[in-house]
Design brief:
Blueprint: H1 8-32, H2 34-39, H3 42-57, H4 63-71, H5 84-99, H6 114-129, E1 139-143, H7 152-161, E2 165-169, H8 175-192, E3 197-201, E4 214-221, E5 224-225, E6 231-233, E7 235-241, E8 254-258, H9 260-264, E9 271-275, E10 281-290, E11 293-298, E12 302-305, E13 308-314, E14 317-324, E15 329-331, E16 334-336, E17 341-345, E18 355-356, E19 362-364, E20 366-369, H10 375-378, E21 384-387, E22 392-399, E23 403-410, E24 416-418, E25 424-425, H11 438-447, E26 453-456, H12 462-474, E27 481-486, H13 489-493, H14 495-502, E28 508-513, H15 514-521, H16 526-539, E29 544-547, H17 552-557, H18 562-570, E30 576-579, H19 585-599, E31 603-604, E32 607-608
Parallel strand pairs: 1-2, 1-30, 2-3, 3-26, 7-8, 17-20, 26-27, 27-28, 28-29, 29-30
Antiparallel strand pairs: 4-12, 4-15, 5-6, 7-11, 9-10, 9-13, 10-11, 13-14, 16-24, 17-23, 18-19, 21-22, 21-25, 22-23, 31-32
């Protein structure tokens, strides 16, 4: 009905029946889950019922109704997440008044008040995530680099910059390092008079590429040149005794362990000449000494292999000689193009690049091991498989039980390199594996008394959540909040039931792991999917953590992209934003805090607010 306004008869005939039907169905759906709601703690049951009311509302296409409500000057129910049934009641009241029809009090049902919905969400967020930093409404979580275990100043500066939640990624480092990070945090809290929670993010089952054969032990040293080929600056290299290696005292491109007796005789101005793999030699000019190590400068590209000969020269005279050792192994990557075949094998077989004969005919297809044997029990022909956060994709052609034959369908035009320890996604494969591994349980036992939050990865069903509940109950760990990571297509599809399961043991939050989720559901659907997750979580009054690649370019390189800034501004709709580690992480936390502070005056969740705008200052034309 595209009219300038609606008559009373049209309201009675077309609007009120739809609104009444939506309301009845919302109540019916909530009542059908009353046994599930009864298990939830009393203070959270209203949130569970509101989630069910909202789920019912979203089972319908109400776009025509929204147009009619707009013509009547009423709410279009577009922002009803936190108070779905109350919003329907309010619109019904107004529509009945416009139609001149009294509404019976018997029609009313207890529901989350429109004013109470936001209060519930804020209270739940404070209980789970703590208070945000001063002047912010959104918290900032930071993933700890390994250096946080030994660098107390780094941790202190992160807290000072605005970090309110420390994320420990249990897929990296070890228990000793994690406990040291937490100790540094508690010290910083005491010094600054600030509070910061700790999240232990359990790794879950590792679905990754495995070992690829090493190319050998080699160090490559590059030199920066301008467009004309002139050296911009020599490359700094650290020469240290292999018998007692020392960390460099300045930024360097590479470290080379050399015989101690050679370096002990070195003086300023001497040259160390090292054999290159190509039958050449490269000169390293000694610049400054630190104990038994030297900072040297190299002016040419070099490839230095294990046991390469080296000599110390002073005024063209050989003073001492030795060998470079040990040199780290260089692991191969596999270059894949669209149309290539790839064999995904079990983890006991090393990966290798494709082999060709002298006539460039394929002798053996490229292969890569998978760390999870369950893949070979579940994968089927025709299913998609993705590698390295979606950079490489293919379709499974067959499954022999020991290897998957994959045809590559997605890669860069010039080919994409696949390395070891890269993620694998199988969005349409039903993997029968637990979200909690034995390693996760051991790590959790070590960290229980030191953390505030535990993160559960690789959730697919509500049962995964209940297993964690039982594990924590067995350990009397009722003090721990739970963060459920939505990173699989199965978890997204079962999100309402997962939220209901999570509410059985609050406080609980959701992390939108946008990296894996984008690969699982398709990059073109990510924007839609993350919106739906935000809507459902707000309906359940469950706080959300906005994660993956927020200001990642800035954290790694010191300068954000325009798209990153826009993405960071949109994160104001979540209760917490997660940043990953990087050399410029302190500056990134400060930058994000500035964005969030500015945006907090313009938006609450997904509702724009009308703060006074500085550009609105327009004097009268007469002035």
């Amino acid at each position: 009905m595209h009219r300038a306004s609606l008559s009373k008869s049209n309201i009675v005939e077309h609007v009120l029946p739809v609104l009444n039907n939506l309301r009845i169905e919302a109540i019916v759906l909530a009542n059908s889950f009353e046994a599930d709601v009864a298990i939830i703690p009393p203070h959270y049951r209203a949130s569970a019922r509101n989630l069910l009311h909202y789920v019912s509302l979203r089972q319908h296409d109400i776009r025509q109704l929204q147009q009619d409500l707009a013509l009547m000057g009423l709410s279009r129910l577009g922002r009803s997440e936190a108070h779905a049934l109350s919003s329907l009641d309010a619109v019904l009241d107004a529509a009945c008044t416009l139609a001149g029809i009294p509404r019976s009090e018997r029609d009313r049902t207890d529901s989350v008040d429109i004013r109470a919905g936001e209060q519930y969400l804020n209270a739940h967020a404070r209980t789970l995530l703590g208070k945000p930093a001063a002047r912010l409404s959104t918290r900032i979580m930071v993933t700890m680099p390994s250096e946080a275990a030994t660098d107390a100043v780094l941790v202190r500066e992160l807290v000072k910059a605005g970090m309110t939640i420390m994320r420990i990624n249990c897929a990296h480092d070890n228990a000793e390092a994690w406990l040291a990070m937490i100790a540094n945090l508690r010290k910083a809290e005491s010094e600054l008079g600030m509070n910061c929670k700790v999240l232990a993010d359990l790794a879950g089952p590792k679905l990754r590429t495995g070992y690829i054969g090493a190319a050998g032990k080699l160090v490559e040293i590059k030199v920066r040149r301008d467009m004309r080929g002139n050296i911009i600056e020599p490359t700094a290299v650290w020469l240290t005794p292999r018998e007692q290696q020392q960390p460099p005292n300045a930024p360097v491109y590479a470290s080379l362990p050399i015989d101690q007796q050679l370096l002990a005789q070195a003086l300023n101005g001497d040259i160390v000449i090292i054999e290159d793999t190509r039958g050449l030699t490269r000169e390293f000019f000694l610049a400054s000494r630190n104990d038994n190590s030297w900072l040297a400068h190299c002016r040419k590209h070099a490839y230095i292999a294990e046991q390469a000969w080296c000599g110390l020269y002073r005024r063209n005279k050989l003073i001492a000689q030795g060998r470079v050792s040990p040199v780290p192994e260089v692991f191969q990557t596999i270059l894949l193009h669209i149309g290539d075949d790839l064999m995904v094998t079990r983890k006991n077989q090393a990966g290798a690049a494709a082999r060709y004969d002298d006539n460039n005919n394929l002798v053996q297809a490229a292969s890569i091991p998978c760390t999870l044997d369950a893949v070979f029990d579940a994968a089927r022909a025709g299913q998609p498989i993705w590698f390295d956060d979606g950079k490489i994709g293919g379709i499974i052609q067959s499954n022999s039980g020991n290897h998957l034959h994959v045809k590559i369908t997605h890669a860069a035009p010039q080919g994409s390199k696949l390395a070891a320890e890269k993620g694998i996604n199988l969005p349409l494969t039903d993997l029968d594996i637990p979200a909690l591994t034995e390693t996760d349980i051991r790590n959790l036992d070590v960290l229980l008394s030191a953390i505030d939050l535990v993160g559960l990865s690789f959730i697919r069903t509500p049962d995964d959540v209940l297993i964690l509940h039982r594990l924590l109950d067995q350990r009397n760990a009722g003090h721990l909040g739970i963060i459920l990571k939505i990173e699989t297509a199965q978890a997204f599809e079962q999100l309402p039931k997962i939220l209901l399961a999570g509410l059985r043991r609050p406080p609980v939050g959701i992390m939108v792991a946008r990296g894996d989720l984008a690969v699982e559901v398709g990059f073109e659907r990510l924007a839609e999917v993350q919106e739906e997750i935000l809507w459902m979580c707000e309906a359940a009054h469950i706080p959300v953590i906005w994660a993956t690649q927020v200001l990642e370019n800035m954290a790694k390189h010191g300068m954000p992209s325009r798209a990153e800034v826009s993405d960071a501004a949109m994160s104001i709709r979540a209760e917490c934003v997660m940043l990953n580690k990087g050399p410029y992480i302190i500056e990134t936390v400060r930058f994000l805090a500035g964005i969030l502070e500015r945006m907090s005056g313009h938006q609450v969740k997904q509702r724009p607010t009308l703060r006074r705008l500085s550009i609105s200052q327009m004097p009268n034309r007469e002035q």
